[in-house]
Fold each of these.
Amino acid sequence: VTIVVMGGSFNPPTLAHKIIMQSAVDCIDAQMGIFVPVSHAYLKRKLRKDGGRICFSEEDRMKMLNIMCADDKRLSASDMEYGSFMVVTYDTLGKLQKRYPEAELYFLSGADKKKIIMDWAAKGDFLEKYHLIIVGRDGVDFERDFLEESELLDRRESFVFLQQPEGIDHISSTAVRKRMNLGESLEGFVQTEVMEMLDGISEKDFPEEIERFIEEYDFLSNTCLSPFIWEGIAWKTAENAFQASKFSSPDRRKEIALMSAAKAKQRGNLISASKEWEDEKVEIME
């Protein structure tokens, strides 16, 4: 069995994703093409750098991918990266290899990822275990560019070079999100059924989230200086009171009340909290 694997955000999945995958599957006569979307945590971190707010849930992205794969029985999607914060392609392929022990795995990558691929080559057995399909645009001799590197030339049998299909240069998830914000048609950018899912959605449907309690949002942090009285003791911060609640001794609690928030957290983490405390900790924090 030969399998092509495409990782990515798929936020949302586009016709370009599908066309490139189908071209790769056809190119090596593979039996399967598997889309592997990144986790929500990884996608949120990526979007923070890009400044975008449209961030589809893991469930919605998987639903759209399944819709996109429905008319081609060779294609499917896997949620194996869901729930993780980091994306490690080597680990993902390892998990797939365990699932399909007899399969030859081909990972699909853009020619613009040469630096990352060089890192993979330098780390040992990646190119010994797996193959890469490198997709590049017309007019660019990306195959020659890749094979100028001695460590890649030595592994020439690990690579398949594929010209990007024509007519999809303008299609990307970023372009789709921009069109969504402008209220423009998504026809020709996404699968028809996916287009119906996305109809009328824009950034206003994804409120800005407060993800870090710093600067103007410092007051939301448990470590923010906010003196208050609780259970007869004066506390500097909510963190002090929370950590002190792990201790039954009034003297120990008073001691922790005088510490910095960081020191209080450190002290609280040194002990194993009781089962009762674990059951009550949410109520305590509230």
Amino acid sequence: MPNHWGIVAEFDSAAAIYTAAEKVTSQGYVRVDAHTPFPVHGLDKALRQGPSPLGWIVVCCGITGITLAQLMMWWMNASDYEYWVSGKEPYAWPSTIPITFECMVLLSGFGAVFGMFGLNKLPRLHHPIFNHKTFWRVSDDRFFLSIEATDPKFDSAQTARFLESIGGKFVEIVED
């Protein structure tokens, strides 16, 4: 027996998918996602998605960059090899600001890129949702709503009927 990934339904407009997302989440489905050709304002709230943790990942990486830069320069200038420049003491913190800023930006950038890869579970060259017959239109003019089989309320027949009742077209069970 094939393993179900979930169920996908197609909608004609941004208004239709917004209304469908509200109805699906109000029925108690939680593993729901929308796939649209352009951003739809408020759709994340209709899907009850929380804020992304990516900002916190970037902040933590930036603070790590600041800390590592300061420790590195303290070790190099004040402990390992004391070097007096322009009559200033070996570790004068104002002279460390440019390097500290650059290390903060570098690690924040790495945190943003690799954090986004991790949160989006990338790289994934093929996703089961690509098996839906009309999903290729998502980048052109159609809107899709998917409910994963891991959703506690998922029942393939009942969920398919529900999606059709709220205006979903080409409702199809997608295999993993």
Amino acid sequence: MAKPQSAPVMPGWYVISLRPSGSHAPVRRAAAALGARVFPLSTLKLVAMDAGPALPAALACPVVVFTSPAAVAFAHGPQPLRQRAGQRWLAVGSGTARALRRAGIGDAAVPEGRADSEGLLAMRELQALPGVDVGLVTAPGGRGLIGETLAQRGARVHLAEVYRRVAVVPSPARLRRLEDMPANCALLVSSAEAFDGLWLRLDASARARLRARPAVASSPRLAAMLASQGFGAIVLAQGAAPSHLLAALAADVGSGRFR
């Protein structure tokens, strides 16, 4: 006999997704599994970059690091991804590892703890690196923490920037709809740049309304950023994957924190 399905944990809830244009589907799937709905509000879009010879050079290194699912998608476009004998391919989190599996790389390693830059840099494969060639497939901008730390550990970093982030300005109508979101609504934050793209376009009253709602941060760094902006109800997730963000929020909703 089939087990009866449990009731959704978050019926009537909305989550505000700041993911880049065209990439809200994973959030919708994760939210729908919990009975929640998604309000997409992109402040960035992703655009391919021609990495030229830097990409095959990075992919030929003994250690290859991908920093996001988008890095996998844009690297896989110009050429098929193939893992050579003896190579170690590393992914910043489970979403990036899934993207690599879809591209034909079946055994990419992921951090055991946090799915972020700090978690990646804690992996044993990235500790002893003097003279080791490490390919870093990523986008320009951000903190630059991974590349800088690998270089400090003695690695020869081969950087392949395969996409870039371009600002998208939400329409005034979209921002007005944000203000009309119900009380059971949470903001998902996995990028400081995406958050800033929204925050800088809100007036004082709109910011106050958003601060009054829960915010889910994908890392302690982003949680601290939200706290510095006056957010009080902050939920810390284990990583930036939509499943991590929604699971953390659902746990707090289920415990009665946001009644």
Amino acid sequence: MQPAVRVEDLGKRYRIDASGPRADYRSLREDLMNLLRSPLRRLRRGTAPRRSDFWALQGVSFELPPGEVLGVVGRNGAGKSTLLKVLARVTQPTTGRVELRGRVGSLLEVGTGFHPELTGRENVYLNGALLGMKRAEIDRKFDDVVAFAEVEQFLDTPVKRYSSGMYTRLAFAVAAHLEPDILIVDEVLAVGDA
């Protein structure tokens, strides 16, 4: 039997630039200012900007058969959330590969895919679509999602007015009704009601 999840030599590296803003998020103005300041900095320091690599994951390998449950436990900063984000294809790995067989649903952060200005009703459709559900499938499961979340009374209220528990229940209800083969859940359930 083929595994539902296969991870081989997975690694995720982040670049840390201690000299200023991250290269990915600089503006043209910042680049021009750095260019003008650059000769002066080199004279003062005599070295290039300090950059280092941080490996959030390195050499991770495992297989998970269909129908099995895997819990990832570790201290803060151990790479648990990074692993789940790579599995959910939110971020790309630096090394290694991930094979997933089946429909994937993920709950990585409270309200990921929810828009605070939209109502609960609108967010069910938006989030369902983001999770890969067709409109007809959402229509068919809509009443079950709402009943599961127990937010009927507030369905036409913007979710920015929901409590964290209501928000979480609605997000979880949509994901639970996706009927995925693989469900990836981070600490999202640590917030809200039992």
